[in-house]
Amino acid sequence: MRLICLLSVAVCIMLGQVPDDFPPTKRDIEAQDRRLPNGKSQRDEIIRADHKKNLEDAAQLIQLSQELKDDLDKGDAFLVSVKTLKKLDDIDKLAKDIRGRLKRY
Question: Which residues contact 56 (CB under 8 A, 6 or more apart)?
């Protein structure tokens, strides 16, 4: 019982020592709108570039998926080529890249 009381007092003391003005967080820094020399928002330009790259990667992902399907249709049930495994790795990498860009915002 005494331990609980001591812990609660210690927490209250620690909370009282927390400063009111915290340093800015990463999100606060990102919220500041930086401008490029041409006057456009840097954040908006990055978002546009990421969107364009996502579209390109999605198109490549579709192409690789179709090639993978064709390889599996042509192949044997007991044999998988190294080329097919490489396509799987490329598909995985593209999906992770797209996911990473989408999670930023």
Answer: none
